[in-house]
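As the next step, I wrote out a protein sequence along with its fold in token form, included below for the reader:
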Amino acid sequence: MADIAKLVEELSALSVLEAADLVKALEEKWGVSAAAPVAAVAVAAGAAEAAAPAEEPTEFDVVIKDAGPKKIDTIKVVRALTNLGLVEAKQMAETAGSKVLTAVGKDVANDAKTKLEGAGAVVEVVPAA
């Protein structure tokens, strides 16, 4: 087995041109290419950039998933948030997937979520469509 530390010292003494010649010689001897993994990484990085969202959404919907065990408390909060009547607020609270608030700011959506969860409801804040 070669002494790794000695090998590192000898390779560190190479000039850039000598290191490039070494890479070419090793590629030929082993039948590999050092450029292929770099290209694959560049392609993967490009795909990751393309998959990244262009911008963060600014409007959100507050969706009730379940009224929870304290339905009356949830209905009261829904009424306070929406100014709906008792019957409409009850229907909204009992219907999974109902949008309590639509196209509101992030702070308003999170505040509504906190209030509804405090009443026992299961709530989700999703980007507005």
Remarks:
- The first strand starts at residue 60 and ends at 66.
